[in-house]
C-alpha cells in the first residue's frame, strides 16, 4: 500500500512568532541597505545638478534623480510595512509570554494550594489548644516544684508575726536609750585603749633632777631615775 499511495509525510511545525519576527527583521535590514545605496546615488545626482548648467544635460540628471527617488520611496514604504509587521509580532509575542507566565503562576498556586491542604490535615486547632493547656499545666507544676525546693528548713511555720514586730520595737527602744557622743551611738563609737596606769594605780615616774628632801645628805639624794646619787667628791678622787 505504501508503494502504491506513498508514505504520509510528517507535517512541519508552523513557524513560531520568534522565527517570523527574525525573518521580517532580516528583510527590513535588506531594504535598509538598498535605501542607503539610493541615498548615496541621490547625493551624487544633487552635486551634478548643482554643477550642471540649465539645459538638456541638467534635465537628464534630474530625470535619473527622480527615478532613484521613486525607488527610494517604494523601499521606504516596504520598510514601514515590515516595521508594522514586526511591531505586531512583538505585541503577539508579549501577549503569548504573558499567558505562559499566567499558566505557570496558576500551576504554582495550585501546587501550593494542594500542599497547604495536606499540611492543614495534619494540624488541627483542637490539638493546638490541647497542647497550650498542657503547657500551662506543666508550667504551674514547675512553679510548685520551685517553691517547694526553695522552702526554708530553719524557720518554723508557727511563728507569730506580731511577736516578731514586738521584739523589733523593743530592740529599737533599747537602742534609743543608749547615751550618744556627738550624735554617734555608743555601739558605733571606736573602742578606746584602756588606761593601764589608772587600773594598776602606779605612781608617776619623776622627771628631771629630783629635789633632795630636808634631812637627807648628798649620799641619800636620788638621781633622775630614782636611784641613789653618787657624791661628786668620790667621783673626782
Beta-strand proportion:
under 5%
Number of H- or I-type helical stretches: 7
Strand order of the largest sheet: 1-2
SSE string: HHHHHEEHH
Alpha-beta content class: mainly alpha
Coiled coil: 99-148
Biased composition (Low complexity): 203-215
Family: Belongs to the SNF7 family.
Keywords: Coiled coil
List the helices and strands and how they pair.
Elements: H1 2-5, H2 17-51, H3 56-122, H4 125-149, H5 161-177, E1 180-181, E2 184-185, H6 196-200, H7 232-236
Antiparallel strand pairs: 1-2
Helix pairs in contact: 2-3
Keywords: Coiled coil
GO cellular component, one term: multivesicular body
Coiled coil: 99-148
Provide structural commentary.
By secondary structure, the chain is mostly helical. The chain has a domain at 15-122. The chain is built from 7 helices and 2 strands. It has helices spanning 2-5, 17-51, 56-122, 125-149, 161-177, 196-200, 232-236, and strands at 180-181, 184-185. A two-stranded antiparallel sheet has the order 1-2. The radius of gyration is 65 Å and the shape is elongated. Residues 20-30 have a biased composition (Basic and acidic residues). One of its GO terms (cellular component) is multivesicular body. Residues 1-30, 175-237 are annotated as: Disordered. It holds the Pfam family Snf7.
Amino acid at each position: 500500500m505504501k508503494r502504491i499511495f506513498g508514505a504520509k509525510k510528517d507535517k512541519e511545525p508552523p513557524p513560531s512568532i520568534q522565527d517570523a519576527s527574525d525573518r521580517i527583521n532580516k528583510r527590513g535590514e535588506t531594504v535598509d541597505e538598498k535605501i542607503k545605496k539610493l541615498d548615496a546615488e541621490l547625493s551624487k545626482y544633487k552635486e551634478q545638478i548643482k554643477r550642471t548648467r540649465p539645459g538638456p544635460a541638467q534635465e537628464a540628471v534630474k530625470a535619473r534623480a527622480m527615478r532613484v527617488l521613486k525607488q527610494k520611496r517604494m523601499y521606504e514604504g516596504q520598510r514601514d510595512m515590515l516595521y508594522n509587521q514586526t511591531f505586531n509580532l512583538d505585541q503577539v509575542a508579549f501577549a503569548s509570554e504573558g499567558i505562559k507566565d499566567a499558566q505557570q503562576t496558576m500551576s504554582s498556586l495550585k501546587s501550593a494550594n494542594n500542599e497547604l491542604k495536606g499540611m492543614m490535615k495534619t494540624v488541627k486547632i483542637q490539638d493546638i489548644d490541647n497542647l497550650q493547656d498542657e503547657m500551662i499545666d506543666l508550667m504551674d507544676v514547675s512553679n510548685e516544684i520551685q517553691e517547694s525546693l526553695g522552702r526554708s528548713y530553719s524557720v518554723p511555720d508557727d511563728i507569730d508575726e506580731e511577736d516578731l514586730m514586738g521584739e523589733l520595737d523593743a530592740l529599737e527602744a533599747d537602742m534609743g536609750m543608749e547615751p550618744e557622743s556627738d550624735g554617734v551611738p555608743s555601739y558605733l563609737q571606736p573602742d578606746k585603749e584602756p588606761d593601764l596606769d589608772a587600773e594598776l594605780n602606779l605612781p608617776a615616774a619623776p622627771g628631771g633632777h629630783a629635789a633632795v628632801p630636808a634631812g637627807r645628805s648628798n649620799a641619800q639624794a636620788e638621781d633622775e631615775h630614782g636611784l641613789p646619787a653618787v657624791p661628786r667628791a668620790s667621783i673626782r678622787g
